[in-house]
Design goal:
Layout (H helix, E strand, L loop, with lengths): L2 H11 L6 H13 L2 H15 E3 L6 E3 L12 E8 L2 H10 L4 E5 L17 H13 L6 E4 L5 H14 L5 E4 L15 H9 L2 E2 L4
Parallel strand pairs: 3-4, 3-5, 5-6
Antiparallel strand pairs: 1-2, 6-7
Helix pairs in contact: 1-2, 2-3, 4-7
The structure holds zinc ion.
Length: 202
């Protein structure tokens, strides 16, 4: 096996959900097809131009995304989500006109993900800053997924937010535990938003 082949396959193997067999199939695909060059260029281009929006954390070109600059969106309600796929699911439902905050994952001690690896500090800063600039945040909807880690993260956030004068709510999921917001249909997302309930800090 040539070093370039080994390097390509081992890079692909590090992608989420890609095992050794799939990595080899993908390697063959990018070598055989001109799509391989387009993919390589797109990756380099995206890595160079995109960075997280300083406010909500979505990947964007520049320092602020268009949603954070959209004055028609209510700055008083922030929906806290794990990643951008959840944001897309909520936007598709058309039932939310507030702001977002992307955590970049959930607390997962086994995977070495603690509060420092997530965008939790920036959420607290946002809530604190909002009180001083007169656009105070009234409600934080914690929309992490109904998984063990998602629930633990929600409780952790509720505890951190307790000192602030802000209502902390949790989506009233109409879907089974372990499900993902990202793959929920519009109606389920709308019902989950409408059915949100006060999240008590433990
Ligand atoms: Zn933003």
């Amino acid at each position: 096996m040539s070093p370039s082949w080994i390097r390509l396959v081992s890079s692909l193997k590090r992608l989420p959900g890609v095992g050794p067999r799939m990595a080899e199939r993908l390697a063959l695909f990018v070598l055989r097809s001109s799509d391989g060059e387009e993919l390589a260029q797109a990756v380099l281009d995206a890595r160079q131009k995109l960075s997280r929006c300083e406010t909500c954390g979505v990947f964007t070109e520049g320092t602020a995304c268009r949603r954070c600059q959209d004055d028609s969106r209510d700055p008083g309600v922030i929906c806290v989500i794990e990643e951008v796929g959840d944001l897309d699911a909520i936007e598709r439902s058309g039932s939310f006109r507030g702001r977002y905050h992307i955590l970049g994952g959930v607390l997962s001690p086994l995977d070495g993900i603690g509060p420092g690896q997530l965008r939790i500090d920036s959420l607290l800063k946002r809530v604190k800053a909002s009180a001083s600039n007169g656009r105070s945040v009234k409600e934080i909807i914690v929309a992490t997924n109904p998984t063990v880690e998602g629930e633990a993260t929600a409780s952790y956030l509720a505890r951190l937010l307790r000192p602030f004068e802000v209502r902390v709510t949790r989506l009233g999921y109409g879907m089974p535990s372990g499900a993902s917001l990202e793959y929920a249909d519009e109606l389920t997302v709308t019902r989950a938003l409408e059915g949100r309930q006060e999240l008590a800090a433990e």
